[in-house]
Amino acid sequence: METLSAAVMLFLIMDPMGNLPVFTSILKHVEKKRRRVILIRELLIALAIMMAFLFMGEQILNFLSLKKEAVSISGAIILFLIGLKMIFPPEGGLGASLGAGDEPLIVPLAIPMIAGPSILATLLLLAHQEPDRMVDWSLALLGAWSLTTVILMFSELFQRIVGEKGLAAIERLMGMLLLMISVQMFLDGITSYFTHA
After folding, report:
1. Cα–Cα distance for residue pair 133/120, rounded to 1 Å
2. Do residues 154 and 146 lie in contact, with contact meaning Cβ atoms separated by under 8 Å?
């Protein structure tokens, strides 16, 4: 996988456009100035967690004695489910879980909204499949995270420009792309398993 392809895939999994309404809902009771501070803090925490998973991925998989094919297939299934959820979003969201005046810390913004199980599993997979390309994967993660940061920091502007229907359409399109990536990952995993069996 090329670095740019990996960055696009990670960006799609982070799904900042789909998370915009949830972030807005969670932070609506917080002052505008404080809102930016919270966003930056949560984004940095999420980046630190994702980097840790990327660089410790190989050790975790070796400790669990997992084969590359198992990780590839399970990662594909996770991405497939995330893609389905993006195309057919569930009713409601995480916004209702915080009361007025509450300030989120780590949960639910950093985890699972940005650094969710799907992206952590994908980073484990990348680190395991090609551990000699950690610089590429780091650049891909930083690129995806940077674009996510820009979108979330200027969320009000994006929502005004695109509108609610536009956001929903973009999320469904991103979900379709993610589904295609997940199917390819699944097929690669199956092919690799029968080749090495």
Report:
1. 17
2. no
pLDDT single digits (tens) 116-163: 877 888 898 888 888 899 999 999 999 999 999 999 999 888 888 888
- Distance, C-alpha 183 to centroid of its chain: 17
Torsion of CA 179, 180, 184, 185, to 10 degrees: -30
- Structural contact between residues 98 and 23, judged by C-beta atoms closer than 8 angstroms: no
Measured between alpha carbons, how far is residue 37 from residues 14, 23, 103 in Å?
20, 14, 11
Provide DSSP, 149-162: HHHHHTHHHHHHHH
On whether the CB atoms of residues 123 and 141 are closer than 8 A, the answer is yes
The pLDDT tens digits for 16-71 are 887 887 787 778 778 888 889 999 999 999 999 999 989 987 787 788 887 777 87
In this structure, the number of other CB atoms found within 10 A of the CB of residue 183 comes to: 14
In whole angstroms, give the CA distance from residue 173 to residue 161.
Answer: 18
At which residue do the structure tokens 């949560």 appear? Answer: 42
Q: Which residues contact 117 (CB under 8 A, 6 or more apart)?
A: 78
Q: What is the pTM of this model?
A: 0.76
